[in-house]
Amino acid sequence: MDTFLQSVVSGVLTGSLYAMIGVGLTVVFGVMRIINLAHGELVMLGMYGAFWGLALWKLDPFASIVIWVPLMFLGGMLVYRFLLRAIIPGGELNTLLYTAGLSLLIANLALFVWTGDYRTIKLKYALAPMRPFGIAVPIPLALAFGLAIVITAALYLFLARTDLGRAIRATSQNPEAAALMGVNVDRISMVTFGLGSALAGAAGVLLAPSLYLYPTVGEILIAKCFVIVVLGGLGSVVGAIAGGVLLGLVESLGAVYVSVAYKDTIGFVIFLLVLLFRPSGLFGVGKS
Amino acid sequence: MPLLEISDLTKDFGGLRAVSRLSFVVEPGEILGLIGPNGAGKTTVFNLITGFHRPTAGQIRLAGASLLGLPPHAVTRRGVARTFQIVKPFPKLSVRENVTLAAFMRLPARRDAEAEACRVLEQMGLAAKLESPASDLTLAEQKRLEMARALATRPTLLLLDEPMGGLNPREVEEASTLVRRVRDAGVTVILVEHVMKAIMRISDRVVVIHHGEKIADGPPDRVVQNPDVIAAYLGKRVA
Amino acid sequence: MTRAAALAAILLLLALPFLTANQFYLHLGITVLMWTVLGVAWNLLGGFAGQVSFGHATFFGVGAYTMMILYLKAGVAPWYGIVLGGIVGALVSLPIGLICFRLRGPYFSLSTLAVAEIVRLVALNWEQLTSGPVGLLITTLPAVSFAGRAVNWESKIPFYYVVAVLVVVAMLATYGLSRSRLGAYLLAIREDEDTAESVGIDTVRAKVVTLALSAFFTGMAGGFYGLYFRYVDPDAVFPIALSVEMVFIAVVGGLATVVGPVIGAVFLVTIGELFRERFLVGHLIFYGLFMMLAIRYLPEGIWGGVRRFVSAHAPARNL
To answer: What ipTM was estimated for this complex?
Structure first.
């Protein structure tokens, strides 16, 4: 029973961070109908931001999030405005290929500049895990979980209560109707991409103390991200959250009860099954 | 024996019943008009015959053999060809390539397929535009290209989905003549149309569908006088 | 491209090892040629049929491992192993195609990526068959003679000719496809799959056959990789990056053309390898950069751009 609870807790904690990454990708898909393959690299940039923040300026990663999030928001908007906007009219596949190119570019620039050496962040207050009810909970992961909840809740409120959030949701449901209602779809797209990037970056910062950092980590992350987003339904924020937590649980339980080796495989098999039998996912907004 | 036999055909899309217990036959060599108000289910019937949708219930027989469960390309191979309401040429390919593709089905050798394509295109009056990209053609020409492409598969049954939509009166005349010529060459035709003049003039028989159900079936002049048909098009109070 | 030009290119290809003794250039040539095979193979499905696969590493790896396992455990000579690698790759592609072709567009692409990752993880963990992360190593190659002389496996020249033969065969196959009925069908499927069906084209069969052909050549390239580098492990032959590079080479070079992937391979691989010589890491920067530039400014690829330029200034030729 202990092992079971331990796995569930680990799974939910990690899952919450997966969820944040997934929400970033799905929100962009919802509004622009594009799958951003460079999303994993945005997370990677957040991770390295946290690392260098600590290494160069002694900033605690969880504090430095307030710097990196706005920066990545801005960066995302610039990427949309100057790179993506011209490509999107060319179609989904073209945009997919373009973001694949962008992903390779960012990851390899990082590889070139920062080398492929694995980096880790060691926090003095995080050396031993907490043990509530006898379950080991690493402190950085717990902090990350807490902040992820706060950020996700803030995002949810933003989308549900503010005018801008409503405009985003409207565009996500029907861009033409939204445009007819006076929504500047181009500006909304720019803001949404910025939002997605900021979420990715934030997830990266939060994850940094808990993972090994290397420039090509984006590859694995984006692959997991697809599983989440497809599982939950492309375009659905709630779906991405559910999908993220679900994947975290599946991996964690899978590692204990099936096999450590094949835990990653399970995610992909589920991914294929969902694509084949329920492509709209659990809460999907729509597919092409 | 009728060429096409539709029996108790029913199609549900989730909660929406698009076609309801529809039954009619098409005799070889006739031009059957299929009419009805917008949304009546006419294109759905075509999609069911050609295999793009599976019926919820009912049977579709071509020359006695069931078409149910066959993928679209197999239905075409059995001898049923169609055109689309909104023309669907392969835009980047040339007119000749568009039709050659269809001819390939019966004539696997490229030279034979290309020759057949040219022959059909000449009959359709498109010989001058052989090498033009399909997207360069006018609407009337694209509709003729669609028909040429369908005919290149050497069908016994041709389903035309609003071939006159968007054409001016002179073009409608030309299209009507073309349909009659196709029938005279031995192809049975089902014609979905809204342009009443054309339907009345060239159909041998007319079937009227409303809300997915058949409400009339007979020669054109009798069908237009049918009170149910008038009510369907103009509303009950006018009938 | 006229027959004469094609012939000249083949002759140049075959004569290259005698024009330079520089080991690096030979290695570059071999690498370029291997990637040419990969680009040409991917292009059959991705360019002609318009089905963008992000999982071709599956077939490369399967081909590589087939060759290695057959040689190391059953003594099957590598050249037979390469062909068998291709065949096994094609066989593996059949169930994969039947699953993935149910999906369209980007969903198809993502599903191929998922399949490739599953296969990689299986190769990583099925230690009995593949020796897992340790990989497989060839220590000695069989002693053979060709045209009366013993083949010197220490030199790069024999490897060059093996891959050159693969390139020529792959390109002939592509040329044959482009002139055939199947080739025409693929172009229709790329434009509009549903309309293609309505015109009597069995789209599923066309896609599955094309994938098998594509997987065959990819698998053979994998077998060659094992022969040349003599070491195979899951991260070398099954990574996502490899699949992605294949896509980039075909797109940057020019989709759905016979010559496009060749140009793409020569261009990208040369720049990449030169960069790698000097700086060791990050050569894929150029792949990313040129992919972005191509999609933005030259969607038909380099060769497509060249053709457009030529036809605007001279009578059109069919390629």
So the answer is: 0.88
